[in-house]
Amino acid sequence: MNKSACSHSGGLPSFEVDEALRDWIVAIRRQLHQHPELSFHETRTAAFIQEKLAELEIPSVNGFGRTGVIALLGDADRTLPVVGLRADMDALPVTEETRLFFGSGTPGIMHACGHDGHVAMLLGAAALLQRHGKIPGRVKLIFQPAEEHGNGADLLVKAGVLDDVGAVFAGHIDTHFQTGQITVDEGIICAFSDPFSIRIRGRGGHAARPHEATDAIVAASSLVMSIQTLISREVDPNRAAVLTIGSFQGGTVNNVIAAEALLNGTMRSTDETTRDKTIRGLQRMVIALQDMYGVQAEIAFEPGLPAVVNSRKAAKIARAAAIDTTTVDKVISQGQSSLGAEDFAFYQQRVDGCLVRFGGALSAAAGPAHSSTFDFDEKCLEIGSRWLAHVAWRWLEQAQASASNKGK
Ligand SMILES: [Zn+2]
Ligand SMILES: [Zn+2]
């Protein structure tokens, strides 16, 4: 079995998951799945995580970044390096339709992104590390609220979660890939996300006398269509970008010309050049709309999410840990960067880090992430636990080795 040969080479622990631990991890996932909580409301989830950490005799603190749970394990020596492992813990406002016997017990809320699995994986990793004993440093377990909301990570970073941390690692379950596969990539793997709103002001009037009014809806409609040419005609076709207007509001009744229209949208891009160019294009078109239709128009960008950028150094350790966990042929690339966003990016703006994906494909009956029928193969849970334990171990060993080299 080349898996264990890899695992034991260089004296690394193998972090095998036995049946009792496997059952423990799966039971955690199912418990959480049954009791999903929305961003910043994860109080029951947090208490449950603390209970499970207490079973492992790992002390933890609650209420970090509102509803987060943080725990430290490993050597008590505060001078030793610290590596962060992160799991997000929130659910989505989706009504579950999976028919799982452990389906959501809360109407309108569902773990439809696999964050229940991420928490179970991280607790499994904590068990593996704790069981092994002598950790070459310290491991900070970060159970993060509000990933879906988009600012849980930002809040934790501002609260100082990374102040003593040298690098952060995390994984996301992905049903586009088979169970056992782990994707590891260097560079951008999740897009920049830039939400914006556009307000268009015309002049109201009678529906039958357009010449006495300035129709905000006609101007806004034209803009919705025009901005798509930024993607089709101005962005390099070899680069990815998306412009979506997700909400269009304007007018009141059928016989009044609307004086105002409001558009809300999001822009996604995977490189700085495309991002800058598309932002400038949007601004240009909004300004031009004023002359075209005689309206007033303004665009406002809201704080978005930076891109997830895996550093070369962190990706190298993540890849080695993936080979420790699975077989070399199953350590793959995710291919192109996703146009989805991930607030893991906020950690990476502060320290080195790498986000990987754990394959967890089920039958075609299971829907995609964020859908009411989303589900994943629970066999991926132990793979996630093992990878998290391995990556923490490898990073700490390397940090210790480079510290002692510097000391020479
Ligand atoms: Zn999600
Ligand atoms: Zn997610």
Structure characterization notes:
The protein has 408 residues and is of the alpha/beta class. It has two domains: 2-186 and 310-407, Aminopeptidase; 192-301, Alpha-Beta Plaits. 36% of the residues lie in helices and 23% in strands. The protein has helices spanning 2-8, 19-34, 43-55, 115-132, 152-158, 216-226, 228-234, 272-293, 312-325, 345-348, 380-407; strands spanning 60-64, 68-74, 82-88, 138-144, 167-174, 182-183, 187-190, 192-201, 205-206, 241-250, 256-257, 260-269, 296-301, 308-310, 331-332, 352-359. The strands form four sheets. It has an eight-stranded mixed β-sheet with strand order 1-2-4-3-5-16-6-15, with helices on both faces. A four-stranded antiparallel β-sheet has the order 10-12-8-13, with helices on one face. Strands 7-14 form a two-stranded antiparallel ribbon. α2 packs antiparallel against α4 and α4 (115-132) crosses α11. It is elongated, with a radius of gyration of 24 Å. The protein starts with a helix and ends with a helix. Mean pLDDT is 94; it is low at 1-9. The site of one zinc ion (ZN) has 4 residues, from loops. Residues 113, 148, 369-370 line the site of one zinc ion (ZN).
Structure keywords:
single chain; 408 residues; alpha/beta; Aminopeptidase; Alpha-Beta Plaits; 2 domains; eight-stranded mixed beta sheet; four-stranded antiparallel beta sheet; disordered N terminus; binds zinc ion
What is the gist of this entry?
With 408 residues, this protein is α/β, with parallel strands linked by helices. The protein has 11 helices and 16 strands.
